[in-house]
């Protein structure tokens, strides 16, 4: 997703015979996007990942199939994801709260060690690790992560997420079909520009290949849960299906810490566009990080009221003071839909004048297509939020 990278052993030329140390022929597999026009990676497997002997359907309540509310009157919404209890592993804990055709947004608060590998065929995934640290284990290798990292995982990557102490809190975006680094942050050579809000050095890549370990991965059969067209199937393999000796290409997971995002400050308040971090088909993900605020002597640092007539806007609150909001806590998600205006809560606009910095830490997502609440979101919604601006 960033630049070509190699991990492990690859032959000098693609599509040529390549052997393991014991002399057995390795199986090449090209992971390609946009047919054969987009980014790709070539992996070399000890055993072809095509020997599944069983495929069974799976249903995970709150995640797949996703269930949207039947009716959704036009309200500003406050979804209290802090009210969801930890349960399950990184996969079975997933709870989707907002959906449209471009993006599914959910939270994940595991309480158990990771079990089966998961591969999302519906889109690229972006985790934001609100609490916790651990290891992303994928067919591309091992990628350690820490608190406040984003983890960007390409579509159809088999992976598991291990959390220290088996606990953590993560926000998850499923970009349908893609989610990545905005094109405007690259020059025509594909390199990140020097005026992008991050550099190549800010992204961390898998550090070592995943090696099959019976203690870690168990004995045959091996399972991968695959999501495709919003249905889950469990694929069962005779041989460990992630046994790779090397790969090279431009598709692989990356980690990026939100505190490495370089914020911009203006003479007066700048729109949220300047916080754009990732983009997908019809939506953007933005990072609000602690920063100096606007430096005009009469600047009002608090966001001005606005009606973003073509976009729904959600904000996931992480830490710090939220200059424009009251009654919002860490892990809250607010949804300010297109169709009605929104703005700072009473008192917050006035209180921001004269401040020179903000400590807010939050992740925002703006979508062109209106978002629908799921039944999970409906169950944890603060129903008074829409009228909480009344003085
Ligand atoms: Fe807004």
Overview of the structural elements:
This protein is mainly beta. It folds into two domains: 50-73 and 84-241 and 252-257, Jelly Rolls, CATH 2.60.120.10; 258-387, Sandwich (Jelly Rolls), CATH 2.60.120.10. It contains three helices and 28 strands. The strands form six sheets. An eight-stranded antiparallel sheet has the order 16-20-12-9-14-7-6-28. A seven-stranded antiparallel sheet has the order 5-25-24-27-22-21-15, with no helix packed on it. A hairpin with a 2-residue loop joins strand 21 and strand 22 (283-288). The longest helix has 5 residues, at 348-352. The structure holds fe (ii) ion. Fe (ii) ion binds next to loops.
**Unreliable runs:** none
List the domain count as a whole number.
Answer: 2
Helix content range of the residues, please? Answer: under 10%
Question: What would CATH call the class of the largest domain?
Answer: Mainly Beta
CATH topology assignment of the largest domain: Jelly Rolls
Portion of residues in beta strands equals 35-45%
